[in-house]
Amino acid sequence: MRYPKHLPEHGTIGFLAPSFGCNTEPYYSAFRHAAEIFHGLGYRMVFGPNCYAGEGVGISNTPEKCGREVMDSFLSRESDCLISCGGGELMCEILPHVDFAELAAADPKWFMGYSDNTNLTFLLATLADTASVYGPCAQTFGMEPWHTSLHDAFGILTGKNLQNCLVTVAGYDLWEKESLKSPENPLAPYHVTQPRKIRCFQGRKETSSPPGFHGRLLGGCLDCLVNLTGTRFDKTAEFARRYQEDGIIWFLEACDLNVFSIRRALWQMKEAGWLEHAKGFLIGRPANGTPMMNLDAYDAVLETAGRSHVPVIMDVDLGHLPPMMPLITGSLAQVSVRGNDISVEMRLVP
Questions:
Q1: Are residues 20 and 88 in contact, defined by beta-carbon separation less than 8 angstroms?
Q2: Pairing mode of beta strands 213-221, 205-207
Q3: Cα separation, 17 vs 86, whole angstroms
Q4: What is the pLDDT of residue 264?
Q5: What is the mean pLDDT of the segment spanning 28-42?
Q6: Which of 167, 306, 311, 314 has an alpha carbon within 20 to 30 A of 76's alpha carbon?
Q7: Of the candidates 155, 161, 142, 137, which has an alpha carbon nearest to the alpha carbon of residue 35?
Q8: How many CB atoms sit inside 10 A of residue 75's CB?
Q9: pLDDT tens track for 278-296
Q10: 236-289, pLDDT tens digit by residue?
Q11: Quick one: DSSP state of residue 203?
Q12: What are the b/e assignments for 26-63, b being 16+ CB within 10 Å?
């Protein structure tokens, strides 16, 4: 596994829009303000051609132009790290225009984003053995004031949270059920009102004190992952075998998928051989987890993940119901849970 150099003091942040661009409110104003904040912190910035674009369908521009922006951003010497402008719907369509072999041969560069950006964070690991950060997108950094999770995420890019090749993140006390961010209030901070309540399972049995577990972090948004399963970009089983001595910690969260779609997605991943070397699961709060026909979000996951007979930690701070712990895809992690507290130690080792 390759780890990029960290963003130096007064270095250059590159922004790109392989998914949605920041061309509508509240994202336009939030992104502009994020740039002002980064400038005030002493950083230079480079903006890709699609950052404010809205010509595409489900993404900022045509798949060809978005793919070119990705390649130019990663191969350019102008920027020291990259942050995606936002999520979206059809980033998968840019993948035929991204040369992962060329990215694997180039010097690695930190890339951060989540949701639709799973199409890059996941494939950078499985196709290019390159670590990335599953964390907030650029416009999120426009909020006033920053939530602790944003300091955690930016601290990974800068290396300020790194000690002896080790980064530790922990869960947050409260989470946001309903956002106050709107076109009229684009800089609103997270509206955290709900207390975090982790549920832990060992296999399918709920437990109050699961044992710690370790492995390579791999995962992202389940909506995107199931879409990649079985395509020519799917080298996941080979990746899991390559790192089988470490094993895989799967971190997963869902956006649009309902509980039956979540259950089907995990079944498909298992049948594709993705879960053979699983050491544990971190499951984020689903954005669409309403029970249906006697199936809730817990059984939707446990029907497959629970049969791996490894720890399954649910309702973790991860994904579309913020805040989210920033996770380094590809890093060697140790997960510890004590009561309602969770910490993830991530080692930047090959």
A1: yes
A2: unpaired
A3: 7
A4: 98
A5: 98
A6: 167
A7: 142
A8: 13
A9: 999 999 999 999 999 999 9
A10: 999 999 999 999 999 999 999 999 999 999 999 999 999 999 999 999 999 999
A11: T
A12: bbbbbbebbbebbeeeebebbbbbbbbbeebeebbbbb
Please, what sign has the CA dihedral across residues 35, 36, 38, 44? Answer: positive
d(CA 270, CA 14): 36
Q: What is the mean pLDDT of residues 25-39?
A: 98
Phi, psi of 227 (to 5 degrees): -70, -30
Q: Name which of 324, 330, 51, 9 is nearest 160 in CA terms.
A: 9
Q: What is the mean pLDDT of residues 20-30?
A: 97
**pLDDT at 209 > cutoff 80:** no
Measured in Å, how far apart are the chain's first and last C-alpha atoms?
4
Q: Residue 298 and residue 312: Cα distance in Å, rounded?
A: 10
> Residue 119: helix, strand or coil by DSSP?
helix
SS (H, E, C) 59-100: CCCCHHHHHHHHHHHHHCCCCCEEEECCCCCCHHHHHHHCCH
* Beta strands per DSSP E along 139-190: 162-163, 166-170, 174-176
8-state DSSP, 264: H
Mean pLDDT, range 206-218, rounded to an integer: 91
